[in-house]
Specification:
alpha/beta
């Protein structure tokens, strides 16, 4: 049954008795970084049109627990409207949580090869921001594809092979860091979940031919949307006020996707299911940002000045409920040349 797919797993990747290498081999982090998005697919089908019962939009969202007294923020010259500078990522995150989200859809630009000494967004979220969710969040849905043991091993391998074009530019540590994030969440009392596709999903990807990457991205959005809805229903039945966190690649969490990218995101559905109480938060490592069309198309790009206050955390709200949190630049190793 679909509900079983988000139940705690006795032998899953988090707290599993299986060797870590075998677990990592079974997991696929599919979404590419912002800079490697494929071309627009065919128009997406209409959403479900259903709202999650028991979730209403308050006239003014109350502060999240523990955030009644927000850290002081400084609005500096050059940051501009909708942009605030903070002394730390934790302070900026507290501001986001003050919007009292029911679903916090976190997206990241995945770590890329060739950036040694730069902590990834996943690692920074795990060590700096995740602890702020202890006691506030009940579930963490990770964009990790857990291979369905009922499906053909040959087809699973074929799909993994097709995914290599997407993951090749990414750092080898990405999957392990996602697993470490799940372990850290579990230690804080936040139940981690992974995506488990049905066997027909593998068949659809293999039939897609040259559109196989788009098919994978659509599958991720579809499965995330399904599991978020199941977790919201569980939340409603239990009477919980906790936050459901979905963590994956930026683009899948877009509340307002670009035309042609609608089928790649679960954001609009999450907003509809929560009566507007879904928050989009993109985590950006400044060293990953490039002057390319894909990066320039992001709504916050033109408002970020990489040489202005590189030691501060930028929080840019490009539209209501859509934030980009840009981490401070990493400190350069002693004796190295200054960062550009």
């Amino acid at each position: 049954m679909a509900r079983d797919r988000i139940a705690p797993r006795a032998q899953g990747p988090f707290g599993s008795t299986r060797p870590a290498a075998r677990v990592a081999a079974a997991l696929l982090a599919l979404a590419p970084a912002c800079a490697t998005q494929p071309g627009p697919p065919a128009p997406a089908a209409a959403g479900s049109g259903r709202a999650s019962p028991g979730v209403s939009a308050p006239a003014r969202a109350p502060a999240a627990p523990g955030t009644a007294s927000l850290p002081a923020a400084r609005v500096d010259d050059g940051c501009g409207p909708g942009c605030t500078l903070f002394d730390s990522p934790r302070d900026a995150f507290a501001r986001v949580l003050a919007d009292a989200p029911v679903v916090l859809a976190v997206g990241e630009a995945h770590a890329q090869r060739g950036t040694p000494g730069v902590a990834s967004a996943t690692k920074r979220f795990t060590t700096e921001l995740l602890p702020e969710l202890a006691g506030k969040s009940s579930d963490l849905l990770l964009e990790l594809w857990f291979a369905n043991p009922k499906c053909s091993k040959q087809k699973v391998k074929q799909v993994a092979k097709r995914q290599e074009a997407v993951t090749r530019p990414q750092a080898d540590t990405n999957q392990n860091e996602f697993i470490a994030l799940g372990d850290a969440a579990k230690a804080l009392g936040i139940q981690p979940h992974v995506l488990t596709p049905a066997c027909k999903e593998y068949d659809a990807i293999l039939r897609a031919g040259p559109d196989d990457v788009a098919s994978m991205l659509e599958m991720i959005a579809r499965l995330t949307r399904r599991d978020v809805e199941l977790l919201l229903e569980r939340r409603r039945k239990s009477g919980s006020e906790s936050i459901i966190v979905a963590y994956g690649g930026a683009m899948h969490n877009d509340l307002h996707p670009r035309p042609g990218f609608e089928s790649f995101t679960f954001g609009p559905a999450a907003s509809e299911l929560t009566a507007g109480r879904a928050i989009e938060l993109d985590l950006i490592v400044p060293e990953y940002i490039k002057d390319t069309p894909s990066w320039r198309a992001l709504p916050w790009y033109a408002r970020y000045a990489p040489t202005l206050h590189p030691d501060r955390t930028w929080l840019i709200e490009s539209s209501k409920g859509s934030y980009a949190l840009i981490f401070p630049r990493s400190a350069a190793p002693a004796g190295s040349a200054p960062a550009p």
